[in-house]
Amino acid sequence: MATRKKANAATQTAQAQSPAVVMSAQHEQAVIMAALAIVEARLKAVTLTVSSPEPVKNFLKLQLGALEREVFGVMFLNAKNRMIAFEIMFQGTLTQTSVYPREVARRALEHNAASVILAHNHPSGVIMPSTSDKLLTDTLERSLALIDVAVLDHVIVGGVKAYSFAEQGLLDRTKAPEADAACTR
User: Fold this and answer.
1) For a tag on the chain, would you pick the N or C end, based on fewer CB atoms within 10 A?
2) Cα separation, 34 vs 29, whole angstroms
3) Closest CA to 134 of 103, 168, 104
4) For 9-167, where are the E strands, in sequence order?
5) For residues 145-169, b (16+ Cβ closer than 10 Å) or e, as one string?
6) Cα–Cα distance measured from residue 48 to residue 6, given in angstroms and rounded to the nearest whole number
7) What are the tens digits of pLDDT across the range 77-94?
8) Strands 71-77 and 115-121
């Protein structure tokens, strides 16, 4: 009898605590969504520059850091380096995703983007770029340069960490579109 009372008391205690846990998870999700909205609004209002990638990395960590599968996204920027849109364009498996330069170029043209920031996550948490990551970046730089769209950065997100190709000097600036002498961007 005493054992049954203890079990009932433990069940009642667990039931009493469960709504608090659910409310806590709901509250956390609300806080995360609010943070995303604030960072996105700031990115759309503030000029993004390669020399100041921290707001970009923070935005991308919030967008990609908790995902369990690898995804590839693109931030499309206007001529003043303001964000037009961020899109997750490709979704893959735990360790890889297929990226099609043609589709990235098509979306850049549809957004009338002057430049892009590439991003993908490593669900493993390891943010160092692989050889494949470097080759993909090079391919996208060359492909997008043909349509006068500059690649300003490629950010790899792993949990709460982010790696910037631009900060590490891994982008080939010779592939960036030339500024037209008759107009400024």
Assistant:
1) N
2) 9
3) 168
4) 71-77, 83-91, 115-121, 150-158, 161-164
5) beebbbbbbbbbbbbeebbbbbbee
6) 60
7) 999 888 999 999 999 999
8) antiparallel
